[in-house]
Amino acid sequence: QEISKVEQEISKVEEEANETSASLQEVRREIQSVDVNISHMEEELATLISTRHTVQKKQRLHDDVDLQRPRNIQDYKSSDIENHKYLFGKLDRLKQEKGRLLEEKDHLRQKEDHLRQE
């Protein structure tokens, strides 16, 4: 009877270990998913930064042209400024989202460590 009790406890512990292992794998998948999201976001940020540089170059070109011409391209220039504001806004939102994902990743890492300790 004593042996049977011990065997039950062993199977209980094994079951818990399997559940913990499954949880750990799930957390690792979540971390991978966050990493993928972060990497996509970094690509998008790089594209936006590159676009922003292009817009800034265009802006300087228009400024140079403006010095040589009357103010007839002002409308075109204002649409560039709007585009620029939009890009900066999107850049800020992406940076915030990236920060949020990094916090989530950190939280998942802590959860993983906790599960590993169990």
In a few lines, what is going on in this structure?
This protein has 118 residues and is an all-alpha fold. The chain has 2 helices and no strands.
Description:
This protein is mostly helical. The chain has one domain (2-117). It contains two helices and no strands. It has helices spanning 2-68, 74-117. The longest helix has 67 residues, at 2-68. The radius of gyration is 27 Å and the shape is rod-shaped. 2% of the residues are buried. The model has no long low-confidence stretch (mean pLDDT 76).
Name a few traits of the molecule.
2 helices; mainly alpha; coiled coil; 118 residues
Blueprint (SSEs and pairs):
Blueprint: H1 2-68, H2 74-117
Keywords: Coiled coil
Region (Disordered): 1-21, 57-79
Coiled coil: 91-118
Dominant shape: rod-shaped
Number of domains: 1
- What's the number of extended β-strand segments? 0
The radius of gyration computed from the alpha-carbon positions, rounded to a whole number of angstroms, is 27 Å
In this structure, how is the largest beta sheet organized? none
